[in-house]
């Protein structure tokens, strides 16, 4: 089984709110230990978050790309990302 590195629209609907909270906590710990990286890529020393799996509304007013990388390891970002992934999944469902 491959490691879950972010939130996925198809599976998040199957999780209970408690499981989503646990997933946020897991990702927070693993990203801050450096075991997992936020979804995205480096190009010419600048980090770009994945448009589909990482970028959330909280990221838009952060300009410096490396600051954005650190931001994507915060609890606030992971919570907003989880909620927005969930909302996106519900919209695709109806
Ligand atoms: Zn963010």
TrEMBL record:
Domain of life per record: Bacteria
What protein name is recorded for this chain? Uncharacterized protein
Q: Which organism is it from?
A: Natranaerobius thermophilus (strain ATCC BAA-1301 / DSM 18059 / JW/NM-WN-LF)
């Amino acid at each position: 089984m491959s490691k879950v590195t972010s939130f996925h629209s198809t599976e998040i609907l199957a999780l209970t709110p408690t499981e989503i909270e646990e997933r946020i906590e897991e990702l927070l710990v693993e990203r801050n230990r450096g075991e997992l990286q936020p979804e995205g890529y480096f190009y010419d020393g600048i980090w770009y978050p994945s448009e589909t799996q990482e970028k959330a509304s909280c990221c838009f007013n952060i300009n410096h790309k490396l600051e954005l990388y650190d931001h994507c390891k915060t609890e606030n970002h992971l919570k907003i990302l989880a909620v927005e992934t969930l909302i996106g999944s519900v919209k695709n469902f109806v």
